[in-house]
Amino acid sequence: MAQSYSLFVARESFVHRLNPLTKLTLTGLLLVSGLFLPGIWTNYLLFVGIVLPLSAAAGVTKQLVRSAWKIVLPFAISLFLIQGFLWPGGTPILYVGPLSLKSEGLQFAVVSTGRILMIVSSFLWFSLTTRPDHLMNSLSRIGFPSNLAYVIVATIQIAPRFQSRAATILDAQRARGLETEGSLRTRARALVPLVIPLVLSSLIDVEERALAVEARAFNRQGPKTFLIELPEAAWEPAARWFMVVLMVSILGLRVYLAITRWRS
Amino acid sequence: MSRLKEEFTTTTWVMIPVAIAINIAVGQIIYTLKIPLYLDSIGTVIVGVLAGPFAGALTGLLANLIWGLSGWNPTYAAFAAVAAVIGLLAGVFTEAGWMRAWWKAILAGALTGLIAAVISAPISAYVFGGVTGSGTDVVVAFFRGMGLGVLPSTFAQGVSSDPLDKAITFFLVWLIVRALPLRFIARFPRAEDVREAEGSPATN
Question: Does domain B2-194 match CATH 1.10.3720.10?
Fold first, then answer.
């Protein structure tokens, strides 16, 4: 895949050699832990204790931290300003002009930022270290429908081409005198002459693609063989089951805590 | 079951990745134009309209999961269910004949946006603390300042942006469907719901 809609960074590392299913299960476990484990600082501990060491092992720490920072920062700013200062009632701990920082609001902002950090960084770690086609290959082996695998791999391959097509249409319409800067009204008016050609030209491809995949036995039923073999260490299947058990336990703990709180 | 088979033809399967790529590429145009809208579900709505509600729902679901798993927009993955409902509703409104007239398409879009706001508010409140990290957070700030809870403020934020966004999305899709060659539309199972055959009297 020369160019694909994925952040994957090719490296030779222990993490890169793991079976994609093992990494996918770990990402799922991190998401479940991040969303459902109690505690204010849990997510920060998981981030520093698990996600950062794993991305260091894969040699992608710089990319992970940079992308996570870009995505999480706007959320964090909104959370601290809005929930920290505009929390109705609450215990004020710091006064800034007419406003005050509430401890309940601050705690809420810290918990929410931690959750967002956990979701974003675990997805980023997965995508930085896993080739999308390898993921689909290993999912197909355990019975994931091949139609869905086709959709995901095809999307990741064609998205960059569509993005460059969007850039071409933008240039072409500008060359014809279309205003794409200025007031909101001017920019909004540019929407139709940019979006419609993009969508129409993309849809026309569909017919050809349909013929192409049918000619390659797209609807063929029955078992399929695989072009590439993905080796995995002997311990990986057991590790995956262990992580699934952990996930179920965390969900169980959460339900148990909710019930006991609801009873009292 | 036969209904699913009817919706998921080879053309539909091939259309889904194209539709998701359209969502991504239109997002880039919006980013360049700096318009305060998302318009990131045009492709999803097209599939819902042309192929049917279940195909639309699957497109929305996969679009947001791919946004997450590709690493470009991990936060979108949390809203995969909302995207699925948008695709589903596009199909349902089309079958009810709402994509035949432009004003009905706008109304269908606004209703879809309202429902999307209702479903996304609890997700946004629990997972993201009720904020989006963008300009619309001033709405959340306003309602929090008035003393409203996190969930109602988040819902107000959604209602202030989603119905307009989806109304414009549905209107653009209405324009696109008008501009598509009839031969192309005829490949899809729902062709008769969106456009009359050439020569028959128009109903709108």
Answer: no
